[in-house]
Design brief:
By secondary structure, the chain is an alpha/beta fold. It has a single domain, classed as Aldolase class I (TIM Barrel). Helices cover 44% and strands 16% of the residues. It contains eleven helices and eight strands. Strands 1-2-3-4-5-6-7-8 form an eight-stranded parallel β-barrel, surrounded by seven helices. Helix 4 links the parallel strand 3 and strand 4. Helix 7 packs across helix 8. The longest helix has 14 residues. The structure holds cytidine-5'-monophosphate. Cytidine-5'-monophosphate (C5P) binds next to strand 8 and helix 10.
Amino acid sequence: MSRTIIALDFSTREQVISFLKQFDEPVYVKIGMELTYACGLEMVREVKGMGHKIFLDLKLHDIPNTVKGGMKNLAALGVDIVNCHCGGGIEMMKAAKQGLIEGTPEGQEVPKLIGVTILTSTSQEAMNNELGIPGAVLDTVVHYAKNAKEAGLDGVVCSVLEARAIHEACGDDFLTVTPGIRLAGGSVDDQKRVATPELARKQGCDMIVVGRSITKAENPAETYRMIEKEISDGRI
Ligand code: C5P
């Protein structure tokens, strides 16, 4: 299975279709709020119909009852991974999971549920001074991951730099999905806690999320293949 999830951060259906045409086989894609708010959930159904696997990244964060209802409706779409913010607390995460179970049509697999820990665009300084969370980012991320595990989630979204500590605290089969991936020498953009695909492999990350490094590349399909190789077996 592909370990690289391509973030389809586009605003039109045309951009998505022409981007995906460059790939010969089905890939794992991430559909987030930019595309969903522009094209609606119809886009999810269309991309799924093309055979691609989907991580629907809508990062739910609300009172437990509302998150449960939202997840129930997302489960009906037949996506592979969905997420919610760990910051919503254990009761909210449990409700999210319950909503997914209730909303999954008979005979289909329940989508994997992962929790967003501390965004990879958040620095330690911003976490301390703006969010009011003291201490090191690593400690908060591991604390959130333990909460997610207790709530029955399948894994978390974290930076490459935290994946090893999360596996140590929550077990090897607890998924670590890591954005903030940049190719050596590439532009960091708005991300703060970044790493290369090679470091992701060394740190034991299960899956990496790559957006601009692929979507803005001169040859996205070739860049994707190169990254997939780097994360999977270390040979480029
Ligand atoms: O372009 P880039 O590779 O930075 O895109 C990263 C993607 O991963 C974006 O779609 C962003 O929303 C998402 N993401 C993230 N950090 C998180 C969770 C999701 O960057 N903690």
